[in-house]
Amino acid sequence: MNLFLEILLVLLLTRIFSEGAERLGQPAGVGELLAGMALALAAGFLGTSLPFLKEITTSEALGQIAQVGIFFLMLLAGIESNLNELRQNYKGSVGVAIGGAAAPLTLGILLGWAILPESEFKCVQAMLIGISMAITSVPANIKVLTDFGLLHSRIGQTMVAAAIFDDVLGLFMLAVLTSMIQTGGPPDLTALAWLVVKILAFFAITVSLGVHVYPHISRGLKGLQSAALEFSALMAVGLGYGALAEALGMHWILGAFMAGLFFEPSRVGYKAYHEINLIAVAITRGFLGPFFFASIGLHLNFDVVVAFPWLILIVILLAFVGKLLGAGLPARLAGLNTREAMAVGVGMSSRGAVELIVLSIAAEAGLFLQGDGDHGLVTHLFSALVLMGVVTTLISPMILKRILPPALPKRVRNG
């Protein structure tokens, strides 16, 4: 099938599904993921009579476009993260973030250790399950909180800041996972210490450049009044940071995130920030992002629903329980009442782009093809974890609406 027709079909289908998802109160990414799943199902049922559907599911060109989409998704995630709000709410949010990551991470690792077949990759695969459960979706949280008018309340800022910290923790764990994929097992004490040193060095370099160097470059470009030059500079920083991350043994998506994180209005100017933000949003959400989400759905194996239904149920249950207890209890200890703390735990249960990015990296490294033997469980693990992310993202807002109905007490609204 002609590449341009493939792109056209995926783009139209993701746009239709994303619009439908947003009308139902769900993030656009969920609709785009469902569009990929619909194409995968259509290829399975109609692939013989309509071979071009099979070609789409195996298209290398679409896969490369999806890889570029990952870069822009992480760049935009950094741009839309607010460092000031993180600083203001860090006390309560750090506990919620650590608990909300540690509990599901532990449950996921224990689950993997209990059910996965013995192999030299078992430890890495169990770690992957834990990391997939530990991550929280920032965009999904913001959408629900905005709908309820709670985004800038205490509960809203606690949840968003904790979700951002969770994503940062997820990226840190991704660095550990990348090292484990390369070595096939957990790093020893010396290797772990060296990895921590490299991670700290990466953050020290990128933070220093973001605080002290990039604002000077941006001010120099400001006189030229060119959004194109400013955007090119941001891209160069993201690519440079990505190259630095890979040189230090981490994944390049860390570079894209850090480049966006320090692209703040106070550092680069409000005019430049809003112009570049509009460009990044248009490119990411209008074109490249949908291809990434669709590509994940295209590679789902729906046989897992028949072959291992218990796996899907257990993964979803532990993912919810881990976030509810891990994030809800610290929120209660931070001063929120029981209802608000439950809302934080449920809201933190949504997964999103970072989880899918981690899974796509693991799939690209062949982690789901290792040590399966005659079980078939590892082969279906990718689809089970993606379905967990989709289900938790779909259900969390529905439960949250039960916990926080429209008629909210004034104290809850204002935090």
From TrEMBL:
Primary localization class, coarse: membrane
Localisation: Membrane
Organism this protein belongs to: Candidatus Nitronereus thalassa
Membrane topology listed for this record: Multi-pass membrane protein
Coiled-coil spans in chain: none
Keyword set includes Transmembrane: yes
This protein's UniProt keywords: Antiport, Ion transport, Membrane, Sodium, Sodium transport, Transmembrane, Transmembrane helix, Transport
Protein name (database record): Cation:proton antiporter
InterPro entries for this protein: Cation/H_exchanger_TM, Na+/solute_symporter_sf
Domain of life, per lineage: Bacteria
Domain Cation/H+ exchanger transmembrane: residue ranges: 9-404
Record Gene3D superfamilies: 1.20.1530.20
Transmembrane segments: 34-53, 65-83, 95-116, 123-142, 154-177, 189-214, 234-263, 275-298, 310-331, 352-371, 377-400
Statement: the UniProt record of this protein carries the keyword Ion transport: yes
